[in-house]
């Protein structure tokens, strides 16, 4: 459970994202969105905490990501092969290639 207070002076709420409560975060987020400030400036001024990146991958998740990239390679090769076949068929019929990058 979070017990740290919001970084904003005078705010008694519990801090969350960037050390700010929801109301203070929204207020600063709108300043950033409107271009009046950047998160880097706000962190340097002590008005906000730095962004935290939480990435907890398990071995199984990493394996799934790697499998996904292998599957994409297989799909790409399948597409490339089919595109070349399609181009040859169109060439026999006297038509321009549908996929000129694979001609």
Characterization of this structure:
The protein has about 100 residues and is mostly helical. The chain is built from three helices and no strands. The longest helix has about 35 residues. The model has no long low-confidence stretch (mean pLDDT about 85).
- The whole-angstrom Rg is 26 Å
Beta-strand fraction estimate? under 5%
Structural class: mainly alpha
Question: What's the average pLDDT?
Answer: 85
Total count of helical runs of at least 4 residues: 3
N-C termini distance: 61 Å
What's the helical proportion of residues? Answer: 40-55%
**Poorly predicted residue ranges:** none
* Tertiary shape: elongated
Q: Could you state the order of secondary-structure elements as H and E?
A: HHH
Summarize the biggest pleated sheet.
none
- β-strand number: 0
Can I get a quick summary?
With 103 residues, this protein is mostly helical. It has helices spanning 22-33, 39-44, 59-92. The protein is 50% helix and 0% strand.
SSE blueprint and pairings:
Layout: H1 22-33, H2 39-44, H3 59-92
Attribute tags:
single chain; 103 residues; mainly alpha; 3 helices; 50% helix; 0% strand
């Amino acid at each position: 459970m979070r017990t740290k207070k919001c970084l904003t002076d005078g705010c008694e709420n519990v801090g969350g994202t960037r050390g700010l409560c929801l109301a203070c975060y929204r207020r600063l987020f709108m300043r950033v969105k409107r271009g009046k400030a950047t998160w880097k400036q706000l962190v340097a001024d002590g008005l906000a905490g730095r962004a935290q990146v939480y990435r907890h991958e398990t071995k199984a998740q990493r394996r799934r990501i790697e499998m996904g990239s292998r599957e994409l390679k297989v799909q790409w090769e399948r597409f490339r092969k089919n595109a070349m076949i399609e181009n040859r068929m169109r060439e026999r019929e006297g038509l321009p290639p549908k996929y000129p990058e694979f001609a």
